[in-house]
Amino acid sequence: METTVRTMPAHKHIALVAHDNRKQDLVRWVKENQHKLQSHFLYATGTTGHILSKETGLAIKSLISGPMGGDQQLGALISEGKIDMMVFFWDPLNAVPHDPDVKALLRIASVWNIPVATNRATAKFLFESALIEQEVDIEIPDYQAYLDARI
């Protein structure tokens, strides 16, 4: 597929997601990075968003709960270019009933080439980068060219 370029703004739209066993780990990480996160637009799946808002006071747009469709809502936002990066503390050692949704979310994030941190170390690398506060050009699939070739 051909690609095009999308410019991520300096103030990123960041998705925050965590499986049940990792929610407190994400809360701790968000508290540690609150000064950086407060200058960005934050989104989260339902339960995670409510916990993060309550614990940190940050403004977070909460979608519905992941197992109830929140993972798919987030995937749609990614495919629409409305999410610039995702911090998803998932639990690789614990199967979840909505595992196909989780895999689809990670897949769509990869398709649309957004940075994804699935653990504290990767999140630290992303948020310590100077790019977190800058406009950044990324390559994304050229969907219009794809459609034009099909017509």
From TrEMBL:
It is an enzyme of class 4 (lyase). Its EC number is 4.2.3.3. Substrate binds at H19, K23, T45, G46, T47, T48, S65, G66, H98. The active site is at D71 (proton donor/acceptor). Transmembrane segments: none annotated. Catalyzes the formation of methylglyoxal from dihydroxyacetone phosphate. This is Methylglyoxal synthase.
